[in-house]
Amino acid sequence: MAGRDAGRESPTFVKIAHRGASAYEPENTIRSFERAIGMKAEMVEFDVRQSLDGRLVVIHDAKVDRTTGGKGPVAGKTLAELKELDAGKGERIPTFEEALDACSGRAKLVIELKESGIEEKVIREIGARGLGDDVFIVSFNAPRLRLVKALDPGMRTGLIMFASGNPVALAERCGADAVAPFRWFITKGLVERARSRGLYTFTWTVDDEGKARALRDMGVTGIVTNRPDILPGG
Q1: pLDDT tens digits, residue range 146-167?
Q2: What 3-state DSSP class applies to 197?
């Protein structure tokens, strides 16, 4: 296994809370992360972008329109302007630092890079808190993951994809530690190929208990879900 887990036994099946417990709380908010941790999610996933004044913030979309009461691009607003927006139930858009601190020591993290140019800042904040062993940095963008590995070869990374003829090869090409195809394309053969190459296998987004159990039985490392209570005990 590449990365910090080299030589360690692969983890048991994990539930990865997609933007927190986003089926129940406003996505990518501290409230959503707290709910996910309360539901015994082993990992919390969230998305990172950058504000106009260079601050890392946790939000999925390039614009604030869908998830807040505001309008316009995230990159066109300062942190102070973003903090004025209601992200649901009175929650505010968290900074990256706030999200790390909320989950530190309570759940491991899957951090999705939604844009380029933030890799070094993300790694620095993770390192400042000593969280390197508790993190996967993931992206649909292979060059971002290659840059993460160049900056910190021990940082675990995961390549997200919808579909591919050879997802394991694509993940290996960018030095990733995990391959994460969409759930429709997970097969037992794929899981076994990934394991034989020392890769974790994650899949997304699974909110049905029966599908979650089937994927667990197939041997996937973990599922990304909006419902961290989808399966008891993990």
Answers
A1: 999 999 999 999 999 998 889 9
A2: coil
First-to-final CA distance of the chain:
23
Neighbours of 31 (CB within 10 A): 21
Domain chopping of the chain, boundaries: 3-225
3-225 has which fold?
A: TIM Barrel (3.20.20)
Q: Of all helices (H) and strands (E), which one includes residue 181?
A: strand 178-181
Task: State the DSSP code for 73.
Answer: B
Helix (H, G, I), strand (E, B) or coil at 5: helix
Q: Hey, which residues are catalytic here?
A: 18, 60
Task: Give the burial class of 19: count Cβ atoms within 10 A of its Cβ; 0-12 exposed, 13-18 middle, 19 or more buried.
Answer: buried
CB 204 within 8 A of CB 182: yes
Q: Is the pLDDT of residue 3 over 60?
A: no
